[in-house]
Design goal:
By secondary structure, this protein is mainly beta. A 6-stranded antiparallel beta sheet has the order 3-4-5-11-6-9, with no helix packed on it. A 3-stranded antiparallel beta sheet has the order 8-7-10, with no helix packed on it. It has a two-stranded antiparallel ribbon with strand order 1-2. The radius of gyration is 17 Å and the shape is globular. The termini are far apart. The model has no long low-confidence stretch (mean pLDDT 90).
Length: 181
């Protein structure tokens, strides 16, 4: 997936400036899940500061794609059709290891007995940029989302299912939240 990221900031004279213009540093096309791609575009700590200077891009240092309370993550993900995971040569163990390596923190939220289902302590703004995808919740409840549809996830257990024949690309903004007991 080719994403261009333009980052602005404030220079030493207090003027707006372009700090970066190019690809995000954390883009991964998965080898074990053909067509699956993940890009961590940006991240903020729980108390972000404006006017960041050059060399302070937080994305390379992110240890978990699931943000802590108050922090954020901006991700773009391309989901291949579910048929990719049903292919005879698909290796779920290799895919699992690749998820742990390339989307740390998020991979650990996935349920072993129900592939794709997961829950995060975050409020997520999810937008379909291209294609169509199904949002599945508990008990098999689901809704089909198409280009430019938006889902707001409030820490719910869910999975993304691409039942079509073409990839679906989504933009996710995750905001770390505290889960009520």
């Amino acid at each position: 997936m080719k994403i261009r990221r333009v980052v602005t900031g404030i220079d030493a004279d207090g003027k707006s400036t372009f700090l970066e213009d190019g690809p995000p540093p954390r883009t991964d096309d998965f080898a074990s899940v053909p067509g699956f791609s993940s890009t961590l575009v940006w991240a903020t700590p729980p108390t972000p500061k404006v006017g960041i200077g050059g060399g302070s891009d937080p994305t390379p240092r992110v240890e978990s794609f699931v943000p802590e309370t108050g922090a954020t993550r901006l991700m773009i993900v391309t989901f291949p059709p579910d048929a990719v995971m049903m292919a005879a040569d698909f290796d779920p163990a290799a895919a699992g290891l690749e998820y742990v390596e390339k989307v740390p923190g998020l991979a650990q939220t996935f349920e072993m007995d129900n592939p794709g289902m997961h829950t995060t302590n975050s409020v997520d703004y999810d937008m379909v940029l291209d294609g169509e995808i199904w949002l599945e919740l508990d008990d098999g409840r689901e809704v089909k989302l198409q280009r430019h549809d938006v889902a707001i996830q409030n820490g719910t257990r869910h999975a993304w299912r691409n039942k079509g024949t073409k990839p679906a690309t989504m933009l996710f903004v995750l905001i770390g939240a505290h889960r009520e007991a």
